[in-house]
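fold-stage: in
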Amino acid sequence: MSDFISPFWGYYVTVLVSLSLLFCAFVLSQNMTKKQAGPVELHGHVWDENLQEWNNPLPRWWMYLFWITIFFALGYFLLFPGFGSFGGKFGWTAHGQYDLEKAKADKTFDDKFSRFAQMDVKAIAADPEAREMGKRLFLTYCQQCHGSDAKGAKGFPNLTDADWLYGGEPDKIVETITGGRQAAMPVWASLGADNIKDVANYVRSLSGLANDSIRAQRGKDVFAQNCVACHGADGKGNQAMGAPNLTDKVWLYGSSEATIVETVTKGRAGRMPSFNELLGDKKIKLLAAYVYGLSHSESGKQ
């Protein structure tokens, strides 16, 4: 970032803009000639053997328009940013303009959001208007990772099923959207390739997937010694830690032996960003209600 905030670039832009304006003024001044009395001569330029150009001065009105443009530019740069680091007399900034427009939009829509602020998330999820508002928020801020259908992708959870890494109750969804999440599956390369392959087969056996029974039996001991702290002795995970349930059919990164070996060997570090500052409590509640409704038929979504 230091390269982009160096004072050099401010001076560079100032000099470049100043030279550009001076050059334009110079060119115009050199062409501000009046039409001379007497016959008009030809420039001597010939096109297509017969087409030639008279040596007439440029129209005065046309030249004045260029001068007006230069003076307008000077006035603009005096009032608004343009001369390097000089911010202009009005002190306008893109960030300030964004804050102004955001405040105006918040004021415009605050009444709509406030109507749902005191409602329970489950009640909001059952309200058709609230669901539509939540859906628009989801499509704006969430579909990039979870997909427009909310069914996720590799590394991004499916939000339409009943499987939740950190809990699917309304308060937990609000907590996730507000503060974000930082998943951390540690690297277990130290176990060695053979032990990792054994534990991968044991993990596959937990959810009824095809596995090497001999390796799975050996992997059970490896799992008990290294994995139960997060995933539990039964492999059903721990929502307080974001450790997934390994006994169901839901896999965040894939269930193949090769993928599980990769996960154990290299670890995983998925991140859900915080939306607290961007959305605020009222919008987060609407968004949480929409997400909650995706996997609960009583909300009217399914």
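fold-stage: in (second)
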Amino acid sequence: MITWYESAKVERRERSASRDVELRCVSPHGQTSLYPDDLPLVFLTHNDVKLMPGFLAHYRSLGVTRFICVDDVSTDGTREYLLGQPDVDLWASALRYREARRGRLWREVLFQLYGDDRWYVNVDSDEFLIYDECESRTLWSVIHALEDLKISRLPAPMLDMYPIDLGAADVSQLKTRAPWEIADHFDSRGYSLATTRRAITVKGGARHREFDADLELIKYPLIFWDGNCRFGASIHQPLPYQRNFAPVLGALLHFKFFADYEKVFEDAVADGQYFDGSAAYAKMTQALASAGALQLFSQSSVKFGGSKQLLRLGFITPVPYCMSP
């Protein structure tokens, strides 16, 4: 009842604060119509061309048929690369990421344009969804299992990925290799999990360990979007809140740390588009100035070994097989 009341209160506030957001499709083919058997993925990106080959390949292998992207004024070739992909609908906005409530308004407009009452993958360009047997099992199998369980969204903690030697993690390798083959380690412990009135909450990981960053790590990368859904105050706590307490069936591998990490942090601070004016990146930049170099490897670090490893370590739970005929 507390969660229901909290959800109703915030939903009323969000409806009264709603605003129009203009998006324009810049793909040569225009906006693509979705069919019932399409699996669309909505993502936001800014200067992430290095990850685009691996990102698209990963989600294509999971069964995604249409990528729907808002590019936040990239200057590194990301927009040009995506314009050359026939399964990508690319959108642009006069607003910047922060003005669009850190992209949440963009996502809501896109869900409205492409249609309610369907499943979407909902991620950023540096987030790669992993679930049990994802190496051989498509997302449609997961969706059917969730529908059997009457679950309408999949919670997933974000695991910061990093290499042992940051200096050797040349981003040019990402043209032909998956990012977890280069930034191939993550913290195997040092996390906390709890529930609030609004959602599951997960804290910890490498950024907390090294920079004391108190960042929320839970997201909902697979979501059934209907007319009752909104993102509200946070992408980590979508409305209605009572849908946010499902089993943790997936994890998001999060890729920020390659050899170009110093430039990435400096650009994020200068751009100021992230949460709290990119305060977390400012803190990391200050720490780097003091230490001279970044070393994320520690006694908590393990090399990524696929979905079964995450299952053994307790980051994810098994996805049941659909029992419907």
